[in-house]
Every structure is written in C-alpha cells, then in structure tokens.
Design brief:
By secondary structure, the chain is mostly helical. The chain is built from nine helices and seven strands, in the order ααββααββααββαααβ.
Length: about 280
C-alpha cells in the first residue's frame, strides 16, 4: 500500500519540477556580471571606426518608431530577402573585426549593435514566433530562449548573446544604462533606437533611451497606489544600487512630470512585471 502511494507522489513531484523548469524565465535569475578577461584588451589611442551603416539603414527601414502603443516595433514580416542578406553580411563584417584594436567608445557601440542585430537575426530565422522565449536553441534540456547559444565567432572565440551582455558589456563598462540599449525583441524591453549606436552618439542615445523607458508604463507606473517597475530592475538590481530604494533613486534621475512627484515621497516598496510578447508591428 505504501509503495502504491509513493509512486504517484514521486510522479507529482517530478511533474511540478519539470513545469517549474520549463516556465522558468532565464532572466528571472539573471547572471551576475562575470568578466571574460579575453575582451578587456583595447587600444585607447586607436582611430579605427566600425561602419554600422548597414544596421542603421535596416533600423530606419523596418523599425516603427511612432507606433500607437508608444513602443518601437520591428516589421519582421516585411523584411525583404535583400535586406536579410544585408543583415547577415553586417553580422559577418562585425565578426571579422579585431575588437582589441578599437578604443573603448568604439567597443561599446560595437557590442551593443552586435547584440541587437543578432537578436533581430534570431527572430527572422524563426519567424513567425510569438515570443523570443519560444526560440529554444540554447544548450540544456530546460533552457528557454536563444541567449546561451554560441551564435557568433569573434577573434576565434564562440560568443553568445549572454556572453555579450553579462561577460563583456556589464563587467567592462559598469554602466547600468546599457540595460536601456540591449533589446530582447519583447514588448517589455526598452526600445530599439531608430538608428545604430556609434562612438559619437552612444552617450546621447543611452540617456535618451533611459529617460524614455523610465517615463513609460513599462519602466515605472503607479497602479492602485503601488509603484510598478519593469522586472529589469529586479533581475539586475545589482546594477541599480542593489536595493529597491536604490532603484527608486535611479528612477528619480530620469523621471519627468507626474512620475517625479510620485518618486519624491514614495517609500512603500515596488512590484514588477514584464511583457515577453514579440515587439512585432504586425
């Protein structure tokens, strides 16, 4: 009798465990910054300029920057075969660059554009898809999404999207505004900008992206007397001061109008949410 009851119980535990694993967002336990020393090398006096024209043209052609929802959306369905080839050629071009020959400003723009362009490429390779979370190409039985797949080869090293974000950009640049630049093709994510990042415009674009996101409903909003923020501030709290209070202080730096007034006195804790639906214009 004991044996017959134990088997179903074990099966139940197994089913629950599998369900948790399959529904576990990789971002809900986002990796800490973990420097990959290989990519620290740079040439501060270098005048080498990376050409991001191809990516800039794709963004200007297919990104809807005045969508009625207030969220920049990408017209994945509309991308012509010639532009898909242009995107592939651009990614191939970036992978041929010796990043250690670039100065820090060029490197920052390089990695941001590479991340965003590769993300769009992933969506195009699997389109139509409802969410990037449905593209289960990362290694591991219960992995969701494409972030750990080694999709790029740079200076002989295989590199994933997670490598770019957590092992290169975050630990090298220590700039929490990077979270407003890296786009995961989701409605909850900060917008893709309307043009490519460059060494000369990155600072301005990062500030614009931060201010736009913080003052959107995705970034921070009051609902039934409680402050709701993007789950980005929970997942990456370590980059925003390490506490809810520090997150609120960060939001104050970019808040405007009504949000500024709310944040001046708000002390009741925060809730978070995120929308993983695809940022498609269709």
């Amino acid at each position: 009798m004991t044996h017959t009851l134990l088997v179903p119980a074990c099966r139940l535990v197994l089913i629950v465990w599998i369900a948790i694993c399959f529904n576990h967002s990789p971002a809900s336990a986002a990796p800490d910054p973990d420097l990959w020393p290989r990519w620290e090398a740079h040439a501060e006096e270098s005048h080498v300029v990376v050409d991001h024209t191809a990516w800039d043209l794709i963004l200007k052609k297919y990104l809807v920057t005045h969508h009625p929802t207030g969220i920049n959306r990408f017209r994945y369905r509309a991308v012509l075969p010639a532009d898909r080839q242009n995107l592939q050629d651009y990614l191939s071009y970036l992978q041929q660059i010796k990043t250690s020959s670039l100065n820090r400003q060029e490197q920052k723009a390089y990695w941001i554009n590479l991340y965003n362009a590769q993300t769009v490429q992933v969506i195009l390779d699997h389109y139509p898809v409802k969410s990037i979370m449905d593209i289960d190409i990362s290694p591991g039985l219960f992995a969701n999404g494409p972030w750990d797949a080694k999709l790029l080869t740079i200076e002989g090293e295989q590199v994933s999207l997670n490598d770019i974000e957590h092992r290169i950009l975050r630990p090298i640049f220590h700039d929490n505004r990077l979270h407003y630049a890296l786009n995961c093709a989701s409605l909850g994510c900060p917008d893709l900008q309307g043009g490519a990042y460059t060494a000369t415009n990155t600072e301005a674009l990062l500030n614009t992206a931060a201010r736009t996101f913080v003052n959107s409903a995705r970034g921070a909003r009051m609902e039934n007397g409680r402050l709701y923020v993007s789950s980005i501030y929970k997942w990456f709290q370590v980059d925003f001061g390490g506490s809810e209070e520090a997150v609120v202080q960060h939001l104050r730096q970019y808040a405007e109008d009504g949000l500024t007034k709310v944040l001046q006195t708000y002390k009741d804790g925060v809730s978070d949410d995120y929308d993983w639906r695809l940022n498609s214009s269709e």
